[in-house]
């Protein structure tokens, strides 16, 4: 029987081996993300032979990501089905990328239903587009970047010397929001602190913008798979015109130029975030599905 427990930094090598084998480009297949955001939905992990499984246990019906790793897919899904049945629930898989959905259909035919989940679709961009902002479609973004360049701003790749200032900046931003007791915001603060506490162990990269010596924006990401860089967090002081355009562009150039794609994750169904992500003209949306076995 599968045994689920809280993820730990000591699990990194085993998990990353499974993730590397599957080479998925969706943001759920990141050890750093799984560890940092574990409080959001009470995430727990399990291993089955050479497979890695992560599940969300916050609701009555646990939901699992499609297992990453090598081996017999029918066997590992069978184990997950048996585990779910001991809880009196059908097996539910969440944020299943199209590549994994094809594997499920090949192995299980019509023994499950799949529902498209637009809110969890990842936004995938060509890194060259976010760096060059070339062409008519990016005219507005170049204007925002021009406003940013009028500021007396300094960008640098993140080092340990920036950690405390970035944590303070994040805490001030959190405290200034009206709904600072919201569970998702609390989970985000935990995630940010986790990123900084294990920055080097997680293989992360970061960028910082300072104005007048003070942090005005920071961002953190990592190489996600063989051709994709993923941006996990991005915070900025919007009293500075063009600050988000600046941190987006400069970090892409400094940290992700060698990757074909940049994954800027999902929009969670938030209208403003969706509008912002679409305005950067993604190369495509990485569609995901909610799968429920009959």
- Along the chain, the helix and strand elements come as HHEEEEHEHEEHHEHHEEEHEHEE
Count of helix runs: 10
The portion of residues assigned to helices is 25-40%
In terms of DSSP E residues, the strand content is: 25-35%
CATH architecture descriptor name of the largest domain:
3-Layer(aba) Sandwich
Q: End-to-end distance, in Å?
A: 21 Å
Biggest sheet: strands side by side, in what order? Answer: 8-9-10-11-12-7-13
CATH topology of the largest domain: Aminopeptidase
Count of discrete domains: 2
Radius of gyration: 20 Å
Principal-axis shape equals: globular
Kindly describe this structure.
The chain is built from ten helices and 14 strands. A hairpin with a 2-residue loop joins strand 9 and strand 10. The strands form three sheets. Strands 8-9-10-11-12-7-13 form a seven-stranded mixed beta sheet, sandwiched between helices. Strands 1, 2, 3 and 4 form a four-stranded antiparallel beta sheet that branches. A three-stranded antiparallel beta sheet has the order 5-14-6, covered by helices on one side. Helix 6 packs across helix 9 and helix 7 runs antiparallel to helix 8. It folds into two domains: 113 residues, Gcn5-related N-acetyltransferase (GNAT) (Aminopeptidase, 3-Layer(aba) Sandwich), CATH 3.40.630; 144 residues, Gcn5-related N-acetyltransferase (GNAT) (Aminopeptidase, 3-Layer(aba) Sandwich), CATH 3.40.630.30. By secondary structure, it is α+β, with helices and mostly antiparallel strands.
